Amino acid sequence: MKEIFISALNQFCYCPYRFYLMFVENLFLENEYTVAGSLHHESVAESEILREEGRVLYRHVPLKSKRLGILGIADTVEITPQGKVIIVEHKEGRKGRWFNDRVQLCAQALCLEEMTGLTVKEGFIFYRRSRRRERVVFTPGLRRETEEVVQEARRILEGAERPVPLPGPRCRGCSLEPFCLPEIHQKLLFEDLSWESVT
Fold this sequence. Notes:
Layout: E1 4-5, H1 6-14, H2 16-23, H3 32-42, E2 48-52, E3 55-65, E4 70-79, E5 85-91, H4 99-116, E6 122-127, E7 132-137, H5 140-157, H6 177-180, H7 182-198
Parallel strand pairs: 1-4, 5-6
Antiparallel strand pairs: 2-3, 3-4, 4-5, 6-7
């Protein structure tokens, strides 16, 4: 079973074709958003243990799930004085209900639970530009969706299918748009479908 980086699941949810280009075709280009995100993560990338007001903070924690075949890094794992375990993921952008970020955080929780035997009920995504944290509860539904994302992403990695690029608002901020050319792909697909329909 091929192991998948947890951060790659975020890419898959953002756009399956972007995931395909990055992790099957090994294509990647930087833009202002990817550079800003990389620089921000470098600022929190050193492993350390902090103690603040009774809380213990573990930074840059390696994670892995043998069951799911995923691995990655948690920016922060927090243990409260009551023994509650909370995962915090740092993002460069603004606060919003981004499904891809919630899946990434939930995948981290699933790994931590498997590694420690602890229950992780919730986490937070800290958005640097808005300076706010979004609370994410790891409901049965989100856990199920996260595991389905892992399975779908693995199918692409193993060559079971190649996603079709579809244009949309997310393309404007995508560094791989020059490789993808979604509008051209859609036009060619439409022409192929039209031709098949009349032959």
